[in-house]
Amino acid sequence: MQLDSLQKVNASLNSLLNDKNGKYSRLFLPMTFYHNISHNQFRLSEDPVTNSMFNETLERALLRVYLKRPDLVRNTQTRLDAQGLVSTSQDATIKTKTAIVEKVAPTPTEALPVPVDVVIKKPNFWKFSGDGYLQFLQNYVSGNWYKAGESNYSMLGTVTLNANYNNKQKVKWDNKLEMKLGFQTSKSDTLHALKTHTDDIRYTSSFGLQASKRWYYSLQLIANTQFMRGYRNNDERVYSDFLSPLNVELSLGMRYNVDWFKGKLKGNVNIAPFAYHYRYVGREDLVTRFGIEKGKHYVDDYGSSLNIDLTWKFSDMVRWKTRLYGYTSYKRTEMEWENTLTVQFTKYLSTNLYVYPRFDDSRKRDDHHGYFMYKEYLSVGLSYSF
C-alpha cells in the first residue's frame, strides 16, 4: 500500500514536469471558474486516470477559492470556450546574421590636424574700366565755336578712364577722366599746317552717401581745360590754350543712380541747388574773351547746376552716350549737351556720330548764332574697351 502511494506521487510529479497540454497553467493564469472541478468533486465514482493526486489537490484548492473568495474569480470556462483554442507556438530557430556589420558605414578616422597657411585678402571695392577710339572723321564746327575750329576731314583720338569705389555700405565715389584730341589739316589755312579741332580734358568726381535705394547725398567736382593752343584759319591769334580757360565747379546736392530697362540704361542724375563755379584764364590776352575783367585772371560766382550722364545700350552693336550739363548763377547761364551714337561693327572697329550743341550767354553774342554754338562729326575707326 505504501509502495502504491509513492508511485502515485511520482507519477504526479512527472506529469507536472512534462506538462505538454497546459493543464497546470491554471495555477498561473488569472483566476477562472472551471465546470469540471465541481463536477469531479460531487460525482459518485472516481476515475483513476483523470483524478490523480495532484489533480485532486489542485481542484480542491480551486473549489475552496470559488466558495470562500468568489471575488477573486476574473473569468469563466464558458468565456474561454467562446474564444476558441489557443494556437500552439512553434519553436523557431533564431539565425544570426554575422555579416550585418558590413552594411554599416565604417566610422571615418579623423586625420591629424595639419598646419595650414591662412591668407586674409582685403576686399577690393574699386572697379576700373575705360575705352578708347582712334578715328577718322568728317567734322563740322560753327564759326563762333568758343574754342575755335574748322569744318574738315580729320583724325580724332579719345580716351575715357573710370575708377569707381563702392564699399557696399552706403559710400560711393565715382571718378571719370575724359580726354579728346583731334587734329586737322586745311588747304585754306596758309599759316598753320596742322591745328586742333577737338581738344578737351574733363575730370568728374562725385562722392555720395546713400540716402535711399537709389538716392545719394552728393558732393561733385567738375574740372575741364585743354591740351594745346586753339587757332582759326589764317589767324595767328591764340583763342584758347592749356589752363586758358580752366573751369572748376564744386556742387552739393542729390544724385540719383539710373538703372532702367533691365540694366540697358545706366548712369546718374546730379541735382545741385548749391554750386560754386570758378574760371581761371592764364593768358592775359584771353581774359576778356571768357568773361573776366581785364587785369584779372579769374572769376567766380554761385548758383545751381544740373549734370546728367547716361549710357543706353540698345544692343551689343549700338550704344548711345549722352551728357547734359547746366549751370546758372541767375545772372548768366551755361548749358551743353554731348551726344555720341556708337555702332560697333567688330571688337575693334566702330563708327561714331557726335553732336554737341552749347549755350553760353556770358560770351559775346554772335550775329548769326546768338549765344548758341554747335559741333558735329561722323567718324569711322578703331575702338577698344576694357
Instruction: Give the strand line-up of the largest sheet.
Output: 3-4-5-6-7-10-11-12-13-14-15-16
The count of DSSP E runs of length 2 or more, i.e. the number of strands, is 16
β-sheet strand percentage: over 45%
End-to-end separation: 126 Å
**Number of continuous helical runs:** 4
* CATH topology group of the largest domain: Outer membrane phospholipase (ompla), Chain C
Fraction of residues in helix? 10-25%
For the record, the CATH class of the largest domain is Mainly Beta
Secondary structure topology:
Blueprint: H1 2-17, E1 32-33, H2 35-42, H3 53-68, E2 75-76, H4 77-83, E3 126-141, E4 152-166, E5 171-184, E6 195-210, E7 215-225, E8 230-232, E9 235-240, E10 246-260, E11 265-280, E12 298-313, E13 318-328, E14 333-344, E15 349-360, E16 372-385
Parallel strand pairs: 1-2
Antiparallel strand pairs: 3-4, 3-16, 4-5, 5-6, 6-7, 7-10, 8-9, 10-11, 11-12, 12-13, 13-14, 14-15, 15-16
Polypeptide structure, described:
The chain has 386 residues and is mainly beta. Helices cover 12% and strands 47% of the residues. It folds into 2 domains: 74 residues, no CATH class; 260 residues, Outer membrane phospholipase (ompla), Chain C (Beta Barrel), CATH 2.40.230. The strands form 3 sheets. The chain has a 12-stranded antiparallel barrel. A two-stranded parallel sheet has the order 1-2. A two-stranded antiparallel ribbon has the order 8-9. Helix 2 packs across helix 3. The protein is rod-shaped, with a radius of gyration of 55 Å. It starts with a helix and ends with a strand.
